[in-house]
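Module 6 notes. Inverse folding takes a fixed backbone as the condition and produces residue identities as the prediction. Think of it as a translation problem where the source language is geometry and the target language is the twenty amino acids. Below is one complete input and output pair. Work through it position by position during the lab.
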């Protein structure tokens, strides 16, 4: 699948470099002390739990950044269903290189596959509706690129990547500023001064705030921690004058009922902070 725009070569290079330095530092002494320098071997990525596989392309990049002579033969691509006992790929080359990159590859793929699997399962509950499933910024520091990429692989839609690519006025912004009306006006003035095409979203907690946000004129209104009935009334008030997003405490079992209100988006931090890792293993292939 096509990589999201934020998954750049430079961003991945920095992430992989820092992750390998964290793990290896002055040497993988377990490997250096026991494995001959010129030994060539083969390993397989074994799937030990049914899942939507994610991180395959990243694994290839990790292997090749560490050792350009490692060869990866992919059998299951990102976003495809994998079953217990499946082999996702083979990697062939320096035994030392395979062993030194094994844990980073597994850490990334297990986490990403867990997120992709959960995202796919949640998103399937929205079939037949217009509502799209969004992730949030509730991600692991320094691992956001992989977690949001996994959401995309699982069929979800990425929300803003960070604080820099959208203006989202949340409850604390409003409370510190004094009102939605004033905060939105200041945000619009800021955008005009900066000449940046930033969209504005406002978090609302009740119908009065929804009406105020509508009058202020924003791109999207977030309906935060509202019950389904209040949310339905809010969507009617918005009436497609701008986009609507449901957020806050939404569980998997609520998804279809929330989508039935007609809301455009549902955002869920659970996709990245509560997904369980998938059991994967890199095993030596004995010829």
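Target side of the pair, the amino acids:
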């Amino acid at each position: 699948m096509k990589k999201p725009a934020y998954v750049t070569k430079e961003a991945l290079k920095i992430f992989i470099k820092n992750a390998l330095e964290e793990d290896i530092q002055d040497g993988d002494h377990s490997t250096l002390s026991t494995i001959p320098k010129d030994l060539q071997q083969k390993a397989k990525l074994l799937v030990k739990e049914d899942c939507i596989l994610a991180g395959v392309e990243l694994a290839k990049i990790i292997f090749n950044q560490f050792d350009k002579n490692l060869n990866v033969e992919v059998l299951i691509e990102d976003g495809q269903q994998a079953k217990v006992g499946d082999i996702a790929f083979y990697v062939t080359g320096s035994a030392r290189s395979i062993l030194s990159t094994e844990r980073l590859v597994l850490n990334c793929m297990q986490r990403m596959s867990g997120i992709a699997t959960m995202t796919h399962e949640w998103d399937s509950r929205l079939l037949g509706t217009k509502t799209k499933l969004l992730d949030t910024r509730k991600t692991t520091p320094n691992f956001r690129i992989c977690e949001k990429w996994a959401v995309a692989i699982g069929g979800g839609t990425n929300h803003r990547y960070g604080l820099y690519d959208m203006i989202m006025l949340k409850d604390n912004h409003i409370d510190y500023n004094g009102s939605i009306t004033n905060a939105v006006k200041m945000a619009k003035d800021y955008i005009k001064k900066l000449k940046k095409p930033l969209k504005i979203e406002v978090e609302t907690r009740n119908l009065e705030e929804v009406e105020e946000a509508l009058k202020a004129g924003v791109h999207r209104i977030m309906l935060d921690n509202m019950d389904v009935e209040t949310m339905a009334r809010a969507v009617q008030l918005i009436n497609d004058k701008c986009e609507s997003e449901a957020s806050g405490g939404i569980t998997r079992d609520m998804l279809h009922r929330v989508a039935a209100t007609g809301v455009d988006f549902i955002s869920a931090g659970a996709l990245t902070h509560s997904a369980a890792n998938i059991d994967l293993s890199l095993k030596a292939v004995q010829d």
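Reference fact for the lab report: Residues 19 and 104 are 7 Å apart (CA to CA).
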